[in-house]
Design goal:
Number of domains: 3
CATH superfamily of the largest domain: Intergrase catalytic core
Helix content: 40-55%
Strand order of the largest sheet: 1-2-3-4-5
Shape: elongated
Order of helices and strands: EHEEEEHHHHHHHHHEEEHHHHHHH
Largest sheet: 5 strands, mixed
Radius of gyration: 31 Å
CATH architecture of the largest domain: Orthogonal Bundle
Structural class: alpha+beta
């Protein structure tokens, strides 16, 4: 016979693992109880009898719900039962009828929209519409199996392995919420191996490539999209991400009488979700001033590189002007993000400590900056080579100034 106690937060927390499953009944609400599994997982439920059959409605895990919250749900379920309803069967029917299309709406409204940054939300919508909805939208949640998902996601998109990985990540996040919210018992994405992802080779641009690119940017400013050209230079001169530049507003820039200028990035606009104050070199600061004079923004909240139709609307991307620029420069394979890599690698080549490089680049983790470590190694090797050559010359020329400058002390 199950023990009875008033279920409180303290009571549930103190329940111990015994190696066997057991149940503690609440003394206040009939049918309300907490179950402790053999492994120690604790969950609240409401138990009732209908037409001679015992029914059990799971209310939620104790790790998510407090005892008081679960008791309120039990009271609601009991009221429905007393009205002749069958809450457990109704949940099962709703779960069985829940298609992926419907669940996407639930997930979007309940979790994604209120808790995700706008840029990430746009990416989620794109992945859902292009990779998940076409093959899974009409399927019911309980019909999703690991084998089915592996075929529909990983095999279907085997020619685009990175796309398959993004789709699997979003789907797994959705189905984890489906488990938490009681629609399914387990996440069928677990156990599906993701495709290996290989980082592209990172190299700084050569002097000739820099010249060609800067000439192409000059041409874009004169003949094409002035604002886009300035955006590209901002990336070149600061190592900013494209999204940070597209979110930059006039109010974020700060100009001083002594010539100093800064770009104050908001935490909501940076990948690391931290504010950043970026000093601007004179050439790019002057370029932004010229852009301001041309754009004549009527509101400081307007974007510096806005939609071509409305200065108050953010531009979606810079693909079209970037294609023109790289074609004019003869650098057809150069990605816009490669300008950021070029900036970061140039700092490492100049011997800037990797920790400082990471801060300037906005890396959350030093391991990300380690991708550029070989450039720093090359800079150190060059320094030690200069010292080695000096000593070699001193040894080769007796009486040379270098040799006379070397003093050895007996200890």
């Amino acid at each position: 016979m199950s023990e009875r106690r008033k279920l409180t937060k303290r009571c549930v927390t103190e329940l111990t693992v015994t190696g066997t499953e057991y149940t503690i009944l609440d003394t206040e609400v009939q049918g309300f109880h907490v179950r402790v599994s053999r492994a120690g997982a604790k969950s609240y439920a409401f138990r009732y009898k209908l037409n001679g059959r015992t029914r059990r409605l799971k209310l939620g895990d104790a790790a998510v719900l407090t005892a008081d919250e679960a008791r309120k749900l039990a009271i609601e379920a009991r009221a429905r039962f007393q009205r002749g309803e069958d809450p457990a069967q109704e949940r099962k029917d709703a779960r069985d009828a829940m298609t992926m299309n419907r669940f996407w709406e639930v997930y979007y409204t309940r979790h994604a929209e209120p808790k995700t940054r706008p840029r990430t939300l746009v990416e989620y919508e794109r992945v859902w519409m292009t990779a998940l909805k076409p093959c899974l939208g009409t399927l019911q949640l309980p019909a999703l199996t690991t084998d089915l998902l592996e075929k529909q996601i990983m095999e279907r998109h085997r020619r685009t392995p990175y796309k398959a990985n993004r789709a699997l990540s979003l789907l797994s996040a959705m189905l984890s919420k489906a488990v938490l919210w009681g629609y399914i018992e387990r996440n069928p994405c677990r156990g599906i191996a993701r495709n290996p992802e290989y980082a592209r080779d990172i190299r700084p641009l050569s002097a000739d490539e820099h010249r060609a690119l800067l000439r192409a940017l000059d041409e874009e400013r004169r003949e094409g999209d002035f604002a886009a050209a300035v955006a590209f230079e901002l990336i070149m001169f600061t190592g900013a991400r494209q999204g940070e530049v597209l979110h930059a507003r006039w109010a974020h820039f700060e100009f001083h009488a002594d010539g100093r200028a800064f770009w104050n990035k908001l935490a909501t606009d940076t990948k690391q979700k931290r504010v950043a104050r970026v000093p601007l070199v004179k050439s790019i600061a002057d370029r932004i001033r010229v852009l301001h004079a041309i754009a004549r923004p009527t509101d400081s909240t307007h974007y510096i590189c806005p939609s071509l139709s409305d200065p108050a609307v953010k531009r979606y991307d810079l693909k079209s002007p970037w294609r023109r620029v790289r074609k004019a420069a003869g650098l057809e394979t150069l990605r816009l993000h490669d300008l950021r890599h070029d900036f970061i690698s140039s700092l490492a080549i100049q011997g800037v400590p990797l920790e400082t490089v990471g801060r300037v680049a906005g890396h959350n983790n030093i391991r990300t900056t380690q991708r550029y470590a070989h450039f720093a190694d090359a800079a150190l090797e060059a320094v030690t080579a200069v010292r080695g050559e000096m000593l070699a010359n001193a040894r080769a020329r007796p009486g040379s100034p270098q040799q006379e400058g070397l003093k050895f002390h007996d200890h």
